[in-house]
Amino acid sequence: MNTTINGSAPPERPLLELRDVSKTFMKDGAALPVLEKVNLSINAGEFVCILGPTGCGKSVTLQIVAGLLEQSSGSVILDGREERGPGPHKGMVFQEYALLPWRSVVENVEIGLELKGIPKRERRKIAEEQLELVGLKGSESRMVHEISGGMRQRAAIARALANRPKILLMDEPFEALDALTKEEMQIQILKAWEKTGTTIFFVTHDVDEAIFLSDKLCVMDINPGRVKQIITNTLPRPRHELVCRTDREFGAIRDQIIQLYSSLKDEELDLVF
Amino acid sequence: MAKPNDTRQTNSSGLIALIADRSFYVLGVILFMIVWQIASALKLFGADFSEAFSPLAAILALVEMVKNGELIHHALPSLRRVLLGLSLAVVVALPIGVLVGYFKRVEQLTYVVFQFMRMISPLAWMPIAIIIFGVGDVSVVFLLWLVAIWPLILNTSHGAGRVSPLWVNMAKTMGAMDIGILRKIIIPAAVPDMLTGLRLAVGVSWIILVPAEMLGVPDGLGYFILDTRDRFRYDQLMATIMAIGMIGYLLDSVNRWLINKFSWKN
To answer: pLDDT band at A7, cuts 50/70/90?
Structure first.
């Protein structure tokens, strides 16, 4: 297990790079800094989790990468190009699924391809492949209100993957699910990640989830949101085939993160009292 | 009394229960007719007219009007005018409603004018309609159009305006621009509200039809009301009123069916 403070330069060119990304919201005429000089790099094929308590700006970071929010300063570089605004090369998975209730499962997966103007037969084929990848074969024609939360999120993942994005952005995707479904989905996303070799940038506040999934953990600090520490996670893979949550090494990473959290809390308390 | 629920059962006792349940709707109509008939028998509508105003007289006149083709002769032009007015209203109102709902500036620009205009009875425009379009079909259709556009615009804009920002953000991450967001998200999301607007528009159009057809057109149910009055055929007048109510009910049923069929469930 290696630990580097604020990320030492990786050997290869990273796929995604955040350079001094800051974000300030205006609230009642006062500037409210939510992100301060976030630096982070993600290599192609990597699974990176950004972890932190509520208000640390982890979702804001992801939305800036997605292009749904604009940073106040700094830059986001994807595949060597500076990013401006959203686009289908960055697949986004939302916590609340964001499926369209008037469309069937397969029609939901097709929407990005429809917007690209891909002919009906071809997009149906791609959508069906993606649904099979996430384990939704046979549910193509069901309506959104007929399927469970876990199935909805799988459909949303298939929809994002159908665009063949360079990177998959996931914003606390399993938070609305019950504990067992959540673990099942974690295994499912690892399988899909292994099959597709896609790069995943995953936001969560669940420590175990972050450790189970990631190659690299970006632990965020609050007030203002910033990167506290980047932890390289060298737990063996494929993790869904191993009993890894009870491993000693898993526990060691967990302890390290909890320590970081508790020191965050102390600083918070100092501010209050 | 509590409403019996819709637990659909397939066995025969379930079917009988369903029929018994639905028969209350019919019973309500029959009771209404009986009260009406008693009121006419007691000459509550005046000594001279009560007999002609009774439901029995009206039903007999209605049967006669169906047989001799008078009802069809007047109902068809009425339906044609209402459908024409509605179609023109839909063509104008849906795009306006979507734009008003989606673009905040368009909403601000139109808000006061629309709220002001919709409170004006279209019949107030009657003289102006006649000056511009002359006596006849065009004036009637214009008034029907004018009354139908407001519920369509307001409901469509309401539907387009409350579309979840999450869906819009999702579409943006899929590479959608304004046109794509309108076509793939806003418009389909607003369909249930559009249909509600259509239902309201059909209702008010059918109501405004009768006075509008008193504007000097040679046929139509509104015209026929005045005609029966002038001929002292109060039984036919009552029959025409019944026919107007029935056709209106049928039109509304079609709309309810549309809403049921095309509204998405969340």
So the answer is: very low
The reply to whether B188 touches chain A by the CB within 8 Å rule is yes
* C-beta atoms of B172 and A67 within 8 A: yes
* pLDDT at residue A123, as a whole number: 94
pLDDT for the residue numbered A3: 46
From A28, A44, A89, A83, select the one nearest A61 (Cα to Cα).
Answer: A83
The answer to whether the Cβ–Cβ distance between A94 and B170 falls below 8 Å is yes
Q: What is the 3-state secondary structure (H, E, C) of A13-29?
A: CCCEEEEEEEEEEEECC
Contact A134, A192 (CB under 8 A): yes
Residues B104 and B46 in one domain: no
Q: For chain B, what is the mean pLDDT?
A: 91
**Which residues in chain A are contacts of B180 at CB distance < 8 A?**
115
Q: Look at chain B and report how many structural domains it folds into.
A: 2
Residue A246 in domain: no
Measured between alpha carbons, how far is A79 from A85 in angstroms, rounded to an integer? 15
Which helix (DSSP H) or strand (DSSP E) does residue A205 occupy? none
Residue in chain A nearest B191 by alpha carbon: A102
Residue A49, helix vs strand vs coil: strand
Burial level of A48, CB count in 10 A (0-12/13-18/19+)?
A: buried
The DSSP secondary-structure symbol of A146 reads G
Residues of A whose CB is below 8 A from B181 = none
Residue A71 maps to a domain? yes
- List, for residues B170-229, the tens digit of each pLDDT value: 999 999 999 999 999 999 999 999 999 999 999 999 999 999 998 889 999 999 999 999
Query: In this predicted model, what pLDDT tens digit does every residue of A200-231 receive, in sequence order?
Result: 999 999 999 999 999 999 999 888 888 999 99
What average pLDDT does range B241-266 have in this prediction? 92
Tokens linked to B140:
């009637």
Kindly state whether residues A213 and A176 are assigned to the same domain: yes
| CB-CB neighbors (< 8 A) of A91 in chain B | 173
CA distances from B120 to A79, B113, B260 (A): 60, 11, 31
Question: Which residue range is the domain that position B25 belongs to?
Answer: 13-51
A 10 A CB-CB count for B166 gives 14
Q: Does B147 touch chain A (CB under 8 A)?
A: no
Give me the amino acid identity at A179: A
Its ipTM equals: 0.87
Distance between CA atoms of B162 and B158, rounded to whole angstroms? 6
- Write out chain A residues lying below 8 Å of B166, CB-based: 94, 96, 98
